[in-house]
Amino acid sequence: MRKKILLQTPTGMHDILPEEQKYYQKIFDIVSEIAKFYNFQRIETPILERTELFSTSIGLATDIVQKEMFSFRTKGGDSLTLRPEGTAPIARAFIQHGMQNLPQPVKLWYFGPFFRYEHPQAGRYRQFWQFGFEVLGAKNPVIDAQIVQIFFNIFQELKLKNVLVKVNSIGDKTCRPYYKKLLSHYLKYRIEELCENCRRRLKENPLRVLDCKEEKCQRVIHGAPQIIDHLCEECRAHFREFLEYLEELGLPYQLDTKLVRGLDYYTRTVFEFFEESEKGKEVGAIAGGGRYDNLIKMLGKQDVPGMGGAGGVERIISLIKEKAIKWPKEKKVEVFLAQLGNLAKRKSLVLIENFRKEGIPVFESLDRDSLKAQLRLADKFGVKYTLILGQKEVLEGTILLRDMVSGQQEIIKLDKILPEIKKRLKKS
Ligand code: HAM
To answer: What is this structure's pTM?
Structure first.
């Protein structure tokens, strides 16, 4: 039993096996291309941060801080936490490296693993990957719209065709306290109808009740006052402009007045992306984000507004697989190099490097000695050409070129094999 557990990844965590890598790579490539276009710079912060960074910024009353952090004490007595998200670490890095002295806004992107001690289920892991975009030092709602557009572009390029973005405004420190009071008042009268969790949420942060998926809470939430009706003048203008920009861009958005997000640092604009799942298998939001104009001030002293979002790589991959989305094939490997004997192995090592420099991928099996086994492998890989280099060929400065389709074999001068293969691959 112990051995069985020993040979399993920890609960909620998974290996990314070789056959899975293409999905991560594809998402990374698309995200990094788009980041380049919009002039975002890449940043990677440590996997660990001081626990306090997250409790201060994400909020003590949130599920993430209360239940989902992997925290531990170091031998030196510091409390560290595996990062559950990327925005707080970036805000920390912004302050630590004096980025307010750079031309503003500072636009950063990232791609890496994050950790939350959640109850594992479809689309919910304890280690998962996110890509994210953050704009620091820009207040205008045009930035909010551009961030939404960036996520939209990524999903378009990934061929996710039915994405929908839900948007809302959750106000700021001027209007939210009043709304919170109003909501609390409404909920307190219906406390008996709320689930256990929501009764606790009501005390700590009533906004979080709006997020509850329990049916009985949904009935209560349905009649609750909406924040959108209680925004202050500035927040209302900000939200109106944001929506106008979305209209201008022709983005298919949906106003969701119950969207509040699970992190406390947000102000004004919040958004979440969903993609229709054909099998009806709910993976949840594939991206989420919003504006966080008080976060930097909460952590440091500067008054620097921020806006950003992050996408969940595993959830996106599960949709790509479900919908059997195919991208153009990667460059296929068409050449196998088989060798026989030590001298041929030595020459093969160099020849492989020459192929690499020319950008021609080759399969080989240098550790194998049997020619038969190597030819079987070449067959299995389905290459067009197999090159055979034996002791005799090395001494004569030649190599055998076998066309795997016709079965024909030719002797080619070793120093001519690269241009010859290049020519043949170009033709086919
Ligand atoms: P979040 O909504 O907590 O936001 O996470 C962003 C995305 O990460 C989610 O929409 C989801 O796709 C994915 N995700 C979250 N938790 C899990 C999990 N346990 N398993 C698999 N995927 C998951 C943030 O993290 C904010 N930092 C986003 C942001 C950036 N806001 C402003 N800037």
So the answer is: 0.89
